[in-house]
Design goal:
This protein has twelve helices and 13 strands. Belongs to the carbohydrate kinase PfkB family. It comes from Thalassoglobus neptunius.
């Protein structure tokens, strides 16, 4: 089977809960960012929100993007690591229901979770316990699946530790070996203070498409203006997708600046907006859409995610909607 995209990333089960500001203050985590926690702290958080209605689904940054691609009608495979526990089985079943292939064997231990605390202002505070997802190794990367893919998509979170860093680099190496394009998402501004040189090396080297938001682009380039940042990144990467929140995004392709307008939406939950944006771009460019058309689809998809609870589209786009969005 051939794939539009082969993704590599963490395997997390998202547990989403709407809470008030006072609850977040009591938990004492920095609002609006992702914080890595150990299993014990994660259990304390789950206890603190006991009694609140929660939703649960397979997640993780790159996994959200892969599910978005399939939701648009694309094809995808995913490399990740889960345990043989109930959470791991839930993850695999949930991905399988979406038609996503995961061929990495399970292991002993605890699967990863991400508790997403959503305050009334739609900000999301993510508490991530990576569990066995940090044990993904280069041996878990399937060369045959990469060879049959148009793009390999790698999340920046993998570079926070070994062996996931080596697994990510292995996927990139195999992609280059088989003339498969490489897309890379910076994932989070906090990563740049620790991995800036390595990320720049990737962008200047094997990466064909880099995804980042404005804060990440500024940290990487030292520039302030969005278009200046995009140009600087485009000096090294063949393609750039720079998101600007409600102001839309900027794409760079073949030296041209392609502005993409934002889509007005009443925010409910910003979880996964960037992941779904990446899904729209990757689906589009692997299925015959122009970069402008792909950007439109990505922008509308990200807005739809922001207007609902959760990172997966509650109301998927129909084929007719996609055709209407991409029309000139």
């Amino acid at each position: 089977m051939s794939y539009d995209v082969f993704g590599v990333g963490n395997a997390l089960v998202d547990v989403q809960a709407k809470i008030d500001e006072s609850t977040l203050n009591r938990l004492d985590f920095q609002k609006g960012v992702m914080t890595l926690v150990d299993d014990e702290v994660q259990q304390e958080v789950l206890t603190a929100i006991a009694g609140i209605d929660v939703s649960r689904c397979a997640g993780g940054s790159a996994a959200n993007t892969i599910m978005g691609i399939v939701g648009f009608g694309g094809t995808a495979s995913y490399a990740c690591k889960v345990a043989s526990d109930e959470i791991g089985q839930f993850f695999l079943q949930d991905m399988g229901k979406q038609g996503i292939t995961v061929e990495v064997p399970t292991t002993e231990g605890q699967s990863g979770t991400c508790v997403i605390l959503i305050t009334p202002d739609a900000e999301r505070t993510m508490l991530t316990s990576l569990g066995v997802s940090i044990t993904l190794t280069p041996e878990d990367i399937q060369e045959s699946a990469i060879r049959q893919s148009k793009f390999v998509y790698v999340e920046g979170y993998l570079f926070t530790q070994e062996p996931t860093r080596s697994a990510a680099l292995k996927a990139i190496e195999l992609a280059k070996k088989h003339d498969v394009k490489v897309a890379f998402t910076v994932s989070d501004p906090f990563l740049i203070q620790y991995h800036k040189d390595e990320f720049l090396s990737l962008i200047e080297g094997p990466v064909d498409l880099v995804f980042c938001n404005l804060d990440e682009a500024r940290a990487l380039t030292g520039k302030h203006d969005a278009v200046d940042c995009a140009h600087e990144l485009h000096n090294h990467a063949e393609n750039v997708a720079l998101t600007l929140g409600g102001d839309g995004s900027v794409l760079m392709h073949e030296g041209a600046v392609i502005p993409i307008e934002g889509v007005e939406v009443s925010p409910v939950d910003t979880t996964g907006a960037g992941d779904m944006y990446a899904a729209g771009i990757l689906y589009g460019i692997t299925n015959g859409l122009t970069w402008k058309q792909s950007g439109r689809l990505a922008s509308h998809a990200a807005a739809r995610v922001v207007g609902q609870l959760g990172a997966r589209l509650a109301q998927p786009f129909t084929e007719a909607e996609i055709q209407e969005l991409i029309g000139d």
